[in-house]
C-alpha cells in the first residue's frame, strides 16, 4: 500500500515542480520568481523525505534540513536585496 | 508492520502530496503576487508537514524508533514560511504599491511607509533609534 502511495506522491510532486518551473519562467516580476523558487525548495524537501521512506533509511533528513535552511536564508536575503538594494547594511 | 499502520502512513503521504500539488497549482492560478503568496505559504507548508508526519509514523511503525529529525524540519518550516511571506510582501509593497492604493487599517495606517524619526526635518535620526 505504501508503495502505491509513494508512486502517487512522487508523480504529484513532480507535477508540482513542473508547475513551479513554469511559474519561474513566467514571472512576471522578480519577486514572483523568488516565491516560485522558494516553493520549489519546499517541494524538493518533501521529495527527499519521501525518497527516504521509499529507501527505508533515515540518512536523508540532514539533506532535507540543510535544504530548508538554505531556502529560507536565500529567500529572505533576496527579498531584503530587492527591498533595500543591500543585504547586510 | 500492521495494516493499520500502513493505511495511516499511506493516507498521510497522499494528503501531503495533494496539498503540495494544490499549493503549486494555486501559485499558477492566482493573478498577482499578493494573492499568489497565499498558496505556497499555507498549502505547501501543510503538505510538507503531512509528508513529515508520514515519515515519523513510518519509522515508528517499521523500526520502533521515534525520530526527532522530522519534527525539527517541520518546526523550522512552520516558523520560516510566515517570515518569508512577510518579507516578500513587504518588498512587493515598497517596489510596486503606494500607501494610498492600499486599504487603510485602523489607527495610523501602514507603519512600513512611515518615515523614520527626524527624516522630515532634515536632521539625523537620534542614535538610539538606529
From TrEMBL, chain A:
Family membership: Belongs to the CPA3 antiporters (TC 2.A.63) subunit F family.
Major localization listed first in the record, in broad terms: membrane
Protein name, entry field: K+/H+ antiporter subunit F
Parts of the chain that traverse the membrane: 6-25, 34-53, 59-83
InterPro entries in the cross-refs: MrpF/PhaF-like
Highest taxon of source: Bacteria
PANTHER family on file: NA(+)/H(+) ANTIPORTER SUBUNIT F1, NA(+)_H(+) ANTIPORTER SUBUNIT F
Gene Ontology CC terms: plasma membrane
Membrane topology label: Multi-pass membrane protein
UniProt source species: Parazoarcus communis SWub3 = DSM 12120
Keywords: Antiport, Cell membrane, Ion transport, Membrane, Transmembrane, Transmembrane helix, Transport
Any one GO MF annotation of this record: sodium:proton antiporter activity
Transit peptide in keyword set: no
Compartment annotation: Cell membrane
UniProtKB/TrEMBL annotation, chain B:
Keywords in alphabetical order: Membrane, Transmembrane, Transmembrane helix
GO MF annotation terms: sodium:proton antiporter activity
Coiled-coil residues: none
Pfam families named in the record: PhaG_MnhG_YufB
Transmembrane segments: 6-28, 40-60, 66-89
Highest taxon above the source species: Bacteria
Residue ranges, annotated region (Disordered): 100-130
This protein's record includes keyword Chloroplast: no
NCBIfam families for the chain: CPA3_mnhG_phaG (TIGR01300), PRK12674.1-5 (NF009316)
Protein name: Na+/H+ antiporter subunit G
Species, as recorded: Parazoarcus communis SWub3 = DSM 12120
Amino acid at each position: 500500500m505504501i508503495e502505491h502511495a509513494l508512486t502517487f506522491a512522487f508523480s504529484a510532486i513532480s507535477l508540482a515542480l513542473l508547475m513551479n518551473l513554469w511559474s519561474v519562467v513566467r514571472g512576471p516580476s522578480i519577486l514572483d520568481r523568488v516565491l516560485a523558487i522558494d516553493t520549489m525548495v519546499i517541494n524538493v524537501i518533501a521529495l527527499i523525505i519521501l525518497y527516504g521512506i521509499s529507501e527505508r533509511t533515515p540518512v536523508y533528513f540532514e539533506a532535507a534540513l540543510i535544504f530548508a535552511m538554505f531556502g529560507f536564508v536565500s529567500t529572505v536575503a533576496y527579498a531584503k536585496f530587492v527591498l533595500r538594494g543591500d543585504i547586510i547594511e | 508492520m500492521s495494516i493499520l499502520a500502513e493505511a495511516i502512513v499511506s493516507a498521510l503521504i497522499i494528503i501531503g502530496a495533494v496539498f503540495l500539488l494544490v499549493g503549486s497549482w494555486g501559485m499558477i492560478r492566482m493573478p498577482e503576487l499578493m494573492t499568489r503568496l497565499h498558496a505556497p505559504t499555507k498549502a505547501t507548508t501543510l503538505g510538507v508537514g503531512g509528508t513529515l508526519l508520514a515519515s515519523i509514523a513510518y519509522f515508528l511503525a517499521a523500526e520502533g524508533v521515534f525520530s526527532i529529525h522530522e519534527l525539527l524540519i517541520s518546526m523550522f518550516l512552520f516558523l520560516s514560511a510566515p517570515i518569508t511571506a512577510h518579507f516578500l510582501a513587504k518588498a512587493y509593497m515598497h517596489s510596486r504599491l503606494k500607501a494610498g492604493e492600499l486599504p487603510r487599517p485602523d489607527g495610523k495606517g501602514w507603519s512600513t511607509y512611515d518615515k523614520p524619526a527626524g527624516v522630515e526635518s532634515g536632521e539625523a535620526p537620534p542614535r538610539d533609534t538606529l
